Amino acid sequence: MKTPLIIERPDLQAWQQKALFSALTAAFWIAWVFLWLPLVTLGGWLFFGYQFRFHMVELNGYARFLNVLMVYAIVIAVMGGALMLWAVYNHIRFRGVDRRKETPPPTDHEMGDWARHPVEVMAQWREFSVMTVHHDAQGSICRVEPALNLRNIEAATKPTDNRRLLRVV
Amino acid sequence: MENLLPGSVIDAIFDFTFYYPLFMSYLWMCGGLYYYFHYERADRPFDQPPPLKEYPPVSILVPCHNEAECIEETVAALQAIDYPEFEILLIDDGSTDTTPQMLDRFTKADRRIRVIHLARNQGKAVGLNTAAMMAKHDYFLCIDGDSIVDPHCLRWMMRHLIDSPRVGAVTGNPRIRTRSTLLGRIQVGEFSSIIGLIKRAQRTYGKVFTVSGVMVCFRRAALHNAGYWNPDALTEDIDISWRLQMRHWDVRFEPNALCWILMPETMRGLWRQRLRWAMGGTQVLFSQNGLFGRWRHRRMLPVYLEYFTSVIWAYTMAAVILLWALGQFVTLPPALYVDTLIPGWNGMVIGTTCLLQFAVSMFLDAKYEKGLGRYYYWMIWYPLAYWMLSVFTTLVAIPKVILRGKKRATWVSPDRGLQP
């Protein structure tokens, strides 16, 4: 491998990039701590009782929080439960049952109809190992040119003799 | 009464903005955990795939556009795939670097490799459609030209296609290689906690929003039935996922099929990538809106509505941010005044929920990658950085898709992160 599978090289960043990400990092940490403001306030109450009284008593924060948690739990249980019941229902209903019949691959003629090229021509395409394809404005194949090399000539004449192909290449 | 209705509506919008991501997070967690315990837990380690009933030959399709820097390792990984018979079709889509010469060299060294040069740049969908016509076999593995597959991936994916004739496509489990910057590291967590978890939850439901175009296995019969890839689709993977499922083909997720990918590590690269994803999703909203009222497509409706709701959420979130910002400078009516964006105890709940979601998803993905837990540290910024990115890309995507109309999607070389 030219490069390692995991590329973890922060040293490759420009200093501006590193500075930007460091500044963002600091900002995000502060913002995240801000989410826990009620909890931080609770911690702060250990030292400053006023804030606790304000959040928990005057704003009725404790009761509201419990109420919110209860509502959340009900909604989550209903949504998650519905999804899992649905999954179990489908599992029981369709387990080991494949109502769809095996769809065979498209025939050469069906492929030819789709590509708008004769079946014989498409069969030739599949034997080219290197080719150049030209398209029209709609992206449909106009013509295909095989690369003029020994391997293609060989493939066109003896498509199944792979060992010989290898020798030629 | 006059004030009551507008106030109620505005309250409902505020509530929706806050509760939607919160409750969806728990839904993803429930679905992800169900999937894990029901399907995934009993699986062998990813490097010991189960034996298959049969091993039908596979055509591997690799669209390439200016991949000179990466294609060598991509091809080396494909050659190392542990599967009895396959051919590799390298599609040079009008590259202007040395990719064409490199591809020709590969084919001389390995008879399994064939090269398709497109005379002009046509876009990924046309490249894949062309290769599908040239392919010898009836199963396709489609891989991006800058990704590295795990040698066992094909056996894991083919087990679905062999075991059930209903399965039209199987998507793999992309893992991030580029982890040098903050953006790269957040994406490591994102691919587990958001993309991997949602795919699992959607499979628990039974339908997926999209396969990962970077690594997906198809049944030729299903592709032919769906009309192959759409050249107008900005994200051909979302488009083909929908067209397959609308024709009642099953689309599966195989977490054991690993594929190592390069992702953007600059703001500009990330913005361009996510805007394209958002535009691709929006295209599906427009193109598939006919499913309403069609009873036989009812199972796709929740997937459609979920994405539709997430788009609405992006707009309501933007409106809340705008109102909050306005409220700092002008006096707004009380019903429109947003005093803070972090709503007290609710904020704590949503913050804790995020951390819980990251923990659950990293637990689910731990068997595929050792040491994943250390990226937990970086994931703390995901809700701020990526939710905002999602909001703004969605806002921009809708007008762009409407103004774009019907136009062919062609290649733009992506940002591939920092590389030594």
UniProtKB/TrEMBL annotation, chain A:
NCBIfam families on file: PGA_PgaD
The protein's name in its UniProt record: Poly-beta-1,6-N-acetyl-D-glucosamine biosynthesis protein PgaD
Keyword Transmembrane helix: yes
Claim: DNA repair is one of the keywords in the record: no
BP terms from Gene Ontology: cell adhesion involved in single-species biofilm formation
InterPro entries, per database record: PGA_PgaD
Pfam families: PgaD
Assigned keywords, A-Z: Membrane, Transmembrane, Transmembrane helix
Annotated transmembrane regions: 20-48, 68-89
Organismal lineage: Bacteria, Pseudomonadati, Pseudomonadota, Betaproteobacteria, Burkholderiales
UniProtKB/TrEMBL annotation, chain B:
EC number: 2.4.1.-
Transmembrane feature ranges: 18-37, 304-325, 345-364, 376-398
Molecular-function GO term, any one: acetylglucosaminyltransferase activity
Keywords: Cell membrane, Glycosyltransferase, Membrane, Transferase, Transmembrane, Transmembrane helix
Localization annotation: Cell membrane
Entry protein name: Poly-beta-1,6-N-acetyl-D-glucosamine synthase
Topological type in the membrane: Multi-pass membrane protein
Transmembrane as UniProt keyword: yes
Cellular-component GO terms for this entry: plasma membrane
PANTHER family to which the protein is assigned, alphabetical: POLY-BETA-1,6-N-ACETYL-D-GLUCOSAMINE SYNTHASE (PTHR43630:SF1)
Family statement drawn from the similarity comment of this UniProt entry: Belongs to the glycosyltransferase 2 family.
GO annotation (BP), single: cell adhesion involved in biofilm formation
Claim: Oxidoreductase is one of the keywords in the record: no
